[in-house]
Design brief:
Elements lengths: L4 H10 L16 H8 L6 H25 L4 H12 L4 H5 L4 H32 L4 H12 L4 H5 L4 H21 L4
């Protein structure tokens, strides 16, 4: 293969293009096309942008919860927001809090964890009756919950039929909730 073709093939591959010059011919891409190919977005950029947006949303929620639960000073709030904007971890952010606030935050987190586990247990009880779970599924799901697993992990144990029924039930719940909502 002609050594002058390799850079073009690489650029074409990066741009998602399957065109190449036949062997023996030189590839001559205009500078504008080459620059476009080099600067072409990578397929994972939308996923990376979505992940970054989720992190920002999670960070915003963290700051909002801290504001709600803790008596933060304006200085602490500014420090937390600047640290989160700089990409600091939650552990690093906790360093801004006093020992009393850290203890209060840990208590809050423990209570939230208990609430989430209780909600998951209630959800599992409703799934048991509404989705006709097999005893083995139920046992596996109870183990996952006991180990602190997520609802996503529970859903992975459902059969396609059970997932379809769950989606139907959720649509019905949303429809019922929309009908019950006050109209303004």
């Amino acid at each position: 293969m002609n050594a002058r073709i390799i850079p073009f093939l690489l650029l074409a591959a990066l741009a998602g293009c399957n065109q190449s010059s036949p062997p023996g011919e030189t590839a001559s891409a205009p500078a504008a096309e080459t620059a476009t190919a080099v600067n072409a977005p990578v397929a994972d950029e939308p996923a990376a942008a979505a992940k970054k947006a989720r992190r920002k949303t999670q960070s915003d929620r963290l700051v909002a919860h801290m504001r709600e639960v803790l008596d933060l000073s304006d200085e602490q709030l500014a420090q937390i927001e600047s640290q989160k904007a700089a990409g600091a971890s939650n552990r690093e952010v906790l360093g801004v809090l006093s020992e009393e606030q850290q203890a209060q935050w840990k208590t809050y987190q423990a209570s939230r964890k208990q609430e989430k586990q209780e909600a998951a247990r209630e959800m599992l009880a409703s799934w048991e009756t509404q989705l006709d779970l097999e005893p083995a599924q139920l046992t596996s799901m109870q183990t996952i919950l006991a180990d602190g697993g997520s609802v996503k992990a529970l859903r992975e144990l459902l059969t396609p039929e059970q997932l379809a029924k769950l989606k139907q039930l959720r649509r019905q719940q949303r429809s019922d909730a929309a009908e019950d909502a006050p109209k303004g």
